[in-house]
Amino acid sequence: MIGKIRLTGATVFTAGVMLEIADLFDVLSTAYLHFLLMAAGVLLLATTALITGKETSMLCRIGLHKYDRVGWDDELRSAAIYQCERCGNKKRVVKTA
């Protein structure tokens, strides 16, 4: 069910972007319909992200983590380990010069 809502939100947002592009090139005049479709699509996507997220912070549920470097990886010398201050999510980032 959540997957269908997410797909619907992405489709509605994409339709809004396509109508915006068509309006920019004077192919089709859609007043403010494209803005409404994009807003509805983002709202659906944000709602499903908030519902399905297991993190405790609302910002982390929609993907806005606050990472802090906690150390370096043992396997790769150029890989740093970052951990989110709010939810504890960890990621490994390889730094290149």
From TrEMBL:
What keywords are annotated for this sequence in UniProt? Membrane, Transmembrane, Transmembrane helix
* Annotated transmembrane regions: 7-25, 31-51
Out of the domains of life, which is the source? Bacteria
Q: What is this protein called?
A: Uncharacterized protein
